[in-house]
Design brief:
The complex is a heterodimer of chains A (322) and B (257). Chain A is built from nine helices and 17 strands. In chain A, helix 3 crosses helix 4 and helix 5 runs parallel beside helix 9. Chain B has a single domain, classed as Rossmann fold, CATH 3.40.50.620. In chain B, the strands form two sheets. Chain B has an eight-stranded mixed sheet with strand order 5-4-1-6-10-7-8-9, with helices on both faces. A two-stranded antiparallel sheet of chain B has the order 2-3. In chain B, helix 2 packs across helix 5 and helix 3 packs across helix 4. Chain B starts with a strand and ends with a helix. The chains are: A alpha/beta (322), B alpha/beta (257). At the A-B interface, helix 4, strand 7, strand 8, strand 9 and strand 12 of A face helix 4, strand 7, strand 8, strand 9 and strand 11 of B. Bound molecules: flavin-adenine dinucleotide and adenosine monophosphate. Adenosine monophosphate (AMP) binds next to strand 2 of chain B.
């Protein structure tokens, strides 16, 4: 039992960056235990992702292509994974820690009788070659390690940054197989509405980010944030509160369900610094926080703390930056 | 409508500083207090609102020893109709093992239609206990659910927060919903507080037990290591001191930290 499976995610037929990171972690684990890496990709017209998956570390790609697999829903994907992996045993199954991978992993683990670790930050092996998943717990103050009971598979979702994607190697070869899917993929659940935005900002590449939180108060006040960002040549980031309020589209969100960013400068305006936001920006080189509440978590973790109203402080900064 | 809410009492790690792991690699729980898992509280509120609008009842379930589930009583204070404790030794149970016990307790509740649980785990990361529970119960589910857009006796439409937006999933009942609400200021979804009258009524109420049987967990925890937190030296900048603001901007923009 030395096979590693990556359940990759593809958007518009292109493998996601997080899926490529999973492949890199899978490759390292497989090399350690002398195994092979199989990538499974499901969706509608996702076969185009296969060459990329091979170039980034897969030995074999299985393509599950069906209308019922787009958009993602738990039951059809669960059935597709079963059909694609029936009768085989796996040492390790990796999925991206996205709202898709985290959603699916417990079901894959259930079907395999496997151990399940969500949101891991890395895969290791101990001296005897036993695979371990590392995960942050206790408000990210402790790393816990997990392993599977003897003879069981380990199902893990990997967080952004857990591994660096391997550079594409055009010389790598691999087999591409089409999965024979059952006709009754659909479950009883149904997606009745889907509002997703196309990516219009690349926060990951931004050197300076001005991020807005609920403390900005109103959509009208938002102009002040835009002025500061324009003056600094910065990108605009946001908390989920701001996205939920409809002040900015979702591609601006930083955090657990948004982007993980590492800018040189992050200026948080009216942001409390909830852990789900902090995980997305904790590695910014310099953190500036503006908040009326000096005890907000982000204020306790900022290099520069400005206790004040964003609507006063931000225009001042804009003026001074000019 | 009969809703089941799974609630957990979790370590409160928010304001902790210093080492969390002792010399033997164990969590220094003596330094921790507990609180109601915030996402489970949001899940309870969703269930109470269903009862407010459609009628019916809310049953809350929690796993653990009596001293680990004070949250059950807290739910009664907030308006839950019934609380059931499922005795278990939490330390040896992974999420799937917990779900196995909770699934049995759920099946024992008369006419249950919807199960709600928070997406988070005690320590602040995803657990998706709800997904494990749906796998055990063999019903449909939705995770990262922000709100219920509509609820009837036969189906719910759950709004799910995904990476680049939202999606609404229609779930025929019975089903499980894992709740991950990002509460805004003055949010209408804000959990209600305990009521003095209910407190009086439930303070001494007997909390029934449901005995469930599980098997060994496939997930083994092998160790703990303290994470050395990034040391950030904080500096206050007076918003009324223009020179200070300007100095800060210059240092920051030059990359001098
Ligand atoms: C499953 C799940 C996933 C999540 N994913 C994300 C994610 O990816 N990204 C994310 O950001 N969040 C996420 N959240 C939400 C997160 O928990 C917080 O709710 C959110 O980050 C809070 O946003 P905020 O700081 O803008 O708002 P709040 O927490 O409401 O903070 C507003 C802050 O503004 C300050 N303030 C108020 N008025 C002023 C003023 N005039 N001037 C200055 N300061 C002022 C207040 O003191 C307060 O500190 C997620 C939650 C869940 C449950
Ligand atoms: N008194 C308690 N209150 C809340 N959670 C608890 C308590 N005791 C144990 N737990 C939880 O039980 C699990 C087992 O803890 P651990 O000792 O870290 O394996 C953890 O998720 C703890 O958060």
């Amino acid at each position: 039992m030395s096979k590693v499976l990556v359940i990759a995610q593809a958007a518009e037929g292109v493998a996601t960056e997080l899926s490529l990171q999973c492949l890199a972690a899978a490759r390292a684990a497989a090399d350690r235990i002398g195994g092979t890496v199989t990538a499974l990709v499901g969706g509608k017209d996702v076969g185009s992702a296969a060459p990329t998956l091979i170039q980034h570390g897969a030995d074999e790609v299985r393509v599950a292509d069906a209308d019922a697999l787009s958009p993602y829903l738990t039951t059809p994907f669960r059935k597709a994974v079963r059909a694609a992996t029936e009768g085989e045993s796996w040492a390790l199954v990796l999925l991206p820690a996205s709202t898709m991978g985290d959603d699916l992993a417990p079901f894959v683990a259930h079907d395999l009788g496997a151990a399940c670790v969500l949101d891991a930050v890395g895969i290791d092996a101990d001296a005897s070659g036993c695979l371990l998943a590392r995960r942050l717990e206790y408000d990210r103050k402790v790393t816990s390690t997990f392993t599977a009971a003897e003879g069981k598979a380990l199902v893990v979702t990997l967080k952004d940054g857990a591994a660096d994607a391997l550079p594409a190697d055009a010389a790598r070869n691999g087999q591409v197989v089409t999965v024979d899917l059952p006709g009754d993929l659909a479950g009883a659940a149904e997606v009745v509405r889907r509002d997703v935005v196309a990516k219009s900002v690349n926060l990951k590449a931004a050197r300076i980010i001005v991020a807005a939180g609920a403390g900005v108060g109103t959509r009208e006040n938002f102009a002040r944030i835009e002025e500061l960002a324009a003056r600094l040549g910065a990108q605009i980031g946001a908390t989920r509160a701001v996205v939920d309020a409809g002040w900015l589209p979702a591609d601006h969100q930083i955090g657990q369900t948004g982007a993980v960013v590492r800018p040189d400068v992050y200026i948080g305006c009216g942001i409390s610094g909830a852990v789900q936001h902090w995980v997305g920006m904790s590695e910014a080189k310099t953190i500036v926080a503006i908040n009326t509440d000096a005890s907000a978590p982000l204020m306790r973790r900022a290099h520069y703390r400005i206790v004040g109203d964003v609507n006063d402080v931000v225009p001042k900064l804009t003026q001074l930056a000019g | 409508m009969h809703s089941i809410v799974v609630v957990r009492e979790v370590w409160d790690t928010r304001d902790l500083t210093g080492d969390m792991v002792d010399g033997a690699g164990a969590i220094r729980t003596d330094r921790l207090t507990t609180r109601f898992e915030p996402e489970d509280l949001n899940a309870l509120e969703m269930a109470l609102r269903i009862k407010d609008t459609l009628g019916g009842q809310v049953t809350v379930l929690a796993l653990g020893a009596p001293g680990e589930v004070d949250v059950l009583r807290e739910c009664l204070y907030r308006g839950a109709d019934r609380a059931v404790r499922v005795p278990a030794d939490l330390a040896d149970l992974d999420t799937a093992g917990r779900a196995r016990l909770l699934a049995q307790a759920t099946q024992a509740q008369d006419g249950w239609r919807l199960v709600l649980a928070g997406v988070t785990i005690p320590e602040g990361e995803t657990s998706l206990l709800g997904s494990h529970l749906a796998a055990e119960l063999g019903v449909e589910q939705a995770s990262y659910v922000d709100s219920l857009e509509s609820v009837t006796e036969t189906e719910v439409v759950a709004r799910r927060a995904i990476e680049m937006g939202i999606e609404d999933i229609r779930l025929p009942l019975p089903a499980v919903v894992s709740v991950g609400v990002a509460l805004l200021a003055d949010d209408p979804r804000t959990p209600r507080s305990a009521k003095a009258m209910l407190k009086l009524k439930a303070k001494k109420a007997e909390i029934p037990e449901f005995a469930a049987a599980g098997g060994p967990s496939p997930t083994r925890r092998t160790g703990h290591q303290a994470v050395s937190e990034r040391q950030i030296e904080s500096q206050d900048v007076d918003p009324n001191d223009e020179a200070a603001l300007q100095g800060m901007l210059q240092r920051v923009l030059k990359g001098e930290g």
